[in-house]
């Protein structure tokens, strides 16, 4: 009797181990299938979301770095642009001031270069909830956060871009923007891709009194008798 009871216990123990092993295999198979689904079906969506997150962080960081430097310089529009008027006080042309242009570009480029170097050294990471890839607002915050890493690729491109807008009768508002373009390598656990981040940062503005020809602003083709003005960087 004791021998039979011992055999039954051994068989029951083996049966439990077998059930546990089968359950583990099924769980592992489901896990692999789920990961395959995420990779094949959700990867494009997650990559787009990861790019958007990286662009947001990069834009905020670059804008913060540049504006802090500009505040230290106390930049004035007259330091960047030369405004020519005729005898009737009408604005004839707007050109870059070489000295001011070189100064602002040098300072901005150095600041952006340093910030990008920090990105490269720190390998900035952000989290994206896995549920966002479902496209459902109900599951947007669900699931674990997918780590997103991005690093800069190459050097940033920068240039100044003055914009003119009407500000009243015979008045124009001139705002000078620093345009920045950066290429980033965005990395998520099972995919990687590059994205180009562009941001426009206002660095100075000025209200100019004087009659302004229509072809200087709000007119992409200019008047027939006057070609559209192009503001180019000063020749080096």
UniProtKB/TrEMBL annotation:
Give the protein name, as stated in the record.
Answer: Sporulation protein YunB
Keyword annotations: Membrane, Transmembrane, Transmembrane helix
Q: Which InterPro entries match?
A: Sporulation_prot_YunB (IPR014197)
Annotated transmembrane regions: 20-38
- This chain's source organism reads Brevibacillus laterosporus
């Amino acid at each position: 009797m004791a021998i039979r009871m011992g055999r039954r216990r051994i068989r029951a123990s083996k049966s439990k181990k077998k059930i546990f092993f089968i359950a583990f295999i099924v769980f592992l198979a489901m896990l692999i299938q789920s990961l395959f689904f995420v990779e094949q079906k959700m990867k494009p969506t997650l990559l787009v979301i990861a790019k958007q997150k990286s662009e947001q962080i990069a834009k905020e960081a670059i804008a913060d770095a540049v504006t802090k430097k500009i505040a230290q310089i106390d930049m004035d529009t007259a330091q960047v642009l030369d405004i020519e008027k005729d005898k009737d006080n009408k604005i004839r042309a707007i050109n870059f001031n070489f000295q001011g242009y070189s100064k602002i570009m040098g300072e901005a480029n150095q600041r952006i270069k340093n910030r990008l170097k920090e990105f490269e050294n720190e390998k900035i990471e952000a989290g994206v909830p896995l549920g966002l890839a479902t496209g459902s607002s109900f599951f947007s915050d669900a699931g674990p956060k997918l780590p997103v890493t991005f690093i800069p690729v190459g050097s940033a491109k920068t240039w100044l871009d003055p914009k003119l807008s009407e500000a009243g009768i015979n008045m124009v508002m001139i705002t000078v923007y620093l345009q920045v373009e950066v290429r980033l390598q965005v990395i998520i656990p099972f995919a990687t891709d590059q994205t180009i981040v562009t941001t426009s940062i206002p660095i100075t503005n000025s209200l100019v009194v004087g009659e302004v020809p229509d072809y200087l602003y709000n007119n992409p083709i200019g008047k027939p008798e006057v070609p559209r003005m192009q503001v180019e960087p000063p020749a080096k």
